[in-house]
Design goal:
Layout (H helix, E strand, L loop, with lengths): L7 H15 L3 H8 L15 H4 L5 H23 L3 H16 L12 H11 L1 H18 L2 H18 L3 H17 L1 H9 L10
Helix pairs in contact: 1-4, 1-5, 2-4, 4-5, 4-6, 5-6, 5-9, 6-7, 6-9, 7-8, 8-9
Length: 201
């Protein structure tokens, strides 16, 4: 397939709308609406679903995971209607918006849910592959962070195998950013101090 770059106006719209979609802090909004206070004041201080789960509300954490993922999916699908490249740009912008939301002084989540949402928008088989790799790694290791790292690293290869080089490149860059955001988790994994799934501290 021949690559056709989006027009400057379409590219700008994809970046702006994608970023604004991604920057909606659902974890913070849902926990406040449920009367749980500011999720940034507990656990890791992160606004993502993993930290929301530390409030003890599995339903709120699940809703956060779903809505954060849909931010990426929606951004990709809306702009893929105009061009594939615009969809890729919008998804990438949504990912950055979640990690660096302007509303929260650019301190957001680690991007895993939005990453997966973008994968499903770009190519649903790649989204399913991520889920399968995450679940397999989680079952073997019981480390949520390791599962996300392994699955995200494999995602560009899955997209490349599907014959989607542009999407593969974008997801590779996103995976690199995701790994960077998991720097503390990687350090704890190396030290053997990372918390396991289901482990109470």
């Amino acid at each position: 397939m021949t690559f056709v770059p989006p027009s400057p106006s379409l590219a700008l719209a994809a970046l702006v709308v994608g970023y604004l979609l991604g920057s909606i802090p659902f974890g913070l909004l849902l926990t406040r609406a449920a009367g749980l206070g500011d999720v940034r004041a507990i656990g890791s201080g992160n606004i993502g679903a993993t930290n929301v789960l530390r409030t003890g509300r599995k339903d709120i954490a699940a809703a956060t995971l779903l809505l954060d993922g849909l931010k990426g999916t929606a951004a990709v699908l809306i702009f893929s209607h105009f061009s594939i490249a615009a969809g890729v740009l919008a998804g990438f912008a949504a990912f950055l918006g979640h990690i660096f939301p302007v509303w929260l002084n650019f301190k957001g989540g680690k991007g895993v849910a939005v990453f997966v949402g973008c994968l499903f928008g770009l190519a649903w088989p790649a989204g399913l592959a991520f889920a399968a790799i995450w679940l397999t790694t989680a079952k073997l290791s019981r480390y949520s962070s390791l599962s996300a790292l392994v699955a995200s690293a494999a995602s560009p290869l899955v997209l490349w195998a599907l014959g989607l080089p542009l999407q593969s490149l974008a997801i590779a860059v996103m995976a690199a950013i995701l790994w960077r955001k998991h720097g503390e988790n990687i350090s704890r994994l190396r030290a053997g101090t990372e918390g396991r799934i289901g482990e109470k501290k």
